[in-house]
């Protein structure tokens, strides 16, 4: 019985950690930022009201428009939960810092990676995405 329970636990963990990315997440992971914005409009993302999708859209906005990007859709959740360790909130915090002219630190990326590995395994792809944001030269404000 315990072997069966252990096997089921391992299989469940594998399903959770290998869940396929959504179409928007896959485009973002592949660095196809403009296509993320084409996939769903800002209004559609707002209407859907899923924080994980909001952050994906915000990352694409920052990478495509840089400092001319519209206000971050994830901002209200970050304002409400500024100390959250949820990867989507950590990403939002980093985007806000980057747009304000700051830099994303290696320590922030390490914290994101630890959080994703420990509690949010399906969001591990965000670590690589945010490394690209960290090293990107963002377009200036218009």
Average pLDDT, rounded to a whole number, is: 88
Indicate the low-confidence ranges by residue numbers.
Answer: 5-18
Question: What class do helices, strands and sheet pairing give?
Answer: mainly alpha
- Report the sheet-strand fraction: under 5%
CA distance, first residue to last residue: 65 Å
- The ordered string of helix (H) and strand (E) elements is HHHHHHHHH
The total count of strands amounts to 0
Largest sheet: none
Oligomerization state = single chain
Specify Rg, calculated over alpha carbons.
16 Å
Give the helix proportion (percent range). 55-70%
Shape: globular
Query: How many domain regions?
Result: 1
How many helical stretches? Answer: 9
Q: What features would you describe in this structure?
A:
The chain is mainly α and 142 residues long. The chain has one domain. Helices cover 68% and strands 0% of the residues. It has nine helices and no strands. The protein has helices at 2-17, 23-29, 33-39, 42-48, 51-65, 75-80, 87-99, 106-119, 125-135. The N and C termini lie far apart (65 Å). Mean pLDDT is 88; it is low at 5-18.
């Amino acid at each position: 019985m315990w072997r069966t329970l252990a096997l089921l636990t391992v299989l469940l963990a594998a399903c959770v950690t290998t869940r396929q990315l959504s179409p928007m997440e896959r485009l973002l992971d592949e660095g196809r930022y403009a296509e993320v914005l084409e996939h769903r409009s800002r209004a559609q993302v707002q209407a859907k009201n899923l924080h994980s999708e909001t952050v994906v859209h915000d990352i694409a906005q920052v990478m495509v428009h840089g400092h001319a990007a519209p206000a971050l859709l994830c901002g209200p959740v970050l304002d409400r939960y500024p100390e959250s360790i949820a990867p989507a909130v950590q990403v939002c915090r980093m985007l806000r810092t980057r747009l304000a002219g700051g830099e994303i630190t290696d320590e922030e990326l390490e914290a994101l990676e630890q959080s994703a590995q420990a509690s949010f395994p399906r969001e591990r792809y965000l670590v690589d995405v945010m490394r690209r944001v960290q090293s990107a030269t963002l377009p200036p404000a218009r």
